[in-house]
Design a protein that fits this description.
199 residues, mainly alpha, AhpD-like, 2 domains, two-stranded antiparallel sheet, 9 helices, 58% helix, 2% strand
Length: 199
């Protein structure tokens, strides 16, 4: 496993990147490959003392961001927006930064930060019913109806695209709760990724 550290405010020990061994070290390399980052984000390190759990997080993340069913910009919008709805500043900061890297406009980033409903997001009429659908994943997935799916389909989204959009929102519901429960999610300042532009 390797040496661990406890960071202030984070409730679980994290395996240091330079001291990772065995399966954890392998997964750390995979994370850097899938994120394109030179370091392992702390979100992944939350489960680093249990490689079985870490592998689940890596598989979920790679499943969404490794595919091309939906454009990357839209997946980042869904990730940042879901995190906003779920009250996870760390993930909002991280995925707003990725959204900006994949062509998200300043207006869109501002809306992710300040909007309270999907209807306030500056997206086109094709994207709106999809964003309304993924919003309901966070605000009450049990309230999703056939009509919600049909509106997105009528706007031109395929079954495969809608499944991936909903899965992305579900994955971030999971990630947001993991991050918040362990104490990482309390502040956007904890996101090294969101600060990449500042350095």
């Amino acid at each position: 496993m390797g040496m661990t550290t406890k960071q202030p405010g984070i409730r679980v020990p994290l395996v240091d990147e330079e001291h990772a061994e065995g399966r954890t070290a392998e997964l750390y390399e995979e994370i850097k490959a899938v994120t394109g980052l030179p370091f392992v984000p702390d979100m992944f390190r939350l489960t680093s003392t249990n490689p079985r759990l870490l592998a689940v997080v890596v598989a979920g993340y790679g499943g969404i961001f490794g595919g091309d069913t939906l454009p990357r910009q839209l997946k980042e919008l869904i990730s940042a927006w879901t995190s906003k709805l779920n009250g996870c500043p760390y993930c909002v900061g991280t995925h707003s930064w990725f959204l900006s890297q994949f062509g998200g406009s300043d207006e869109l980033l501002e809306a992710v930060s300040n909007a309270n409903t999907a209807e306030e997001l500056p997206v086109d009429e094709r994207t709106m019913p999809l964003m309304q659908l993924v919003t309901k994943v966070s605000t009450g997935a049990y309230k999703i109806t056939d009509a919600d799916w049909e509106r997105a389909a009528a706007a031109g989204w395929s079954d495969a695209e809608m499944l991936e959009a909903v899965f992305c929102a579900c994955l971030f519901a999971f990630i947001n709760r993991l991050v918040d429960a362990t104490g990482l999610g309390s502040s956007v300042d904890r996101s090294r990724i969101s600060r990449l532009g500042d350095e």
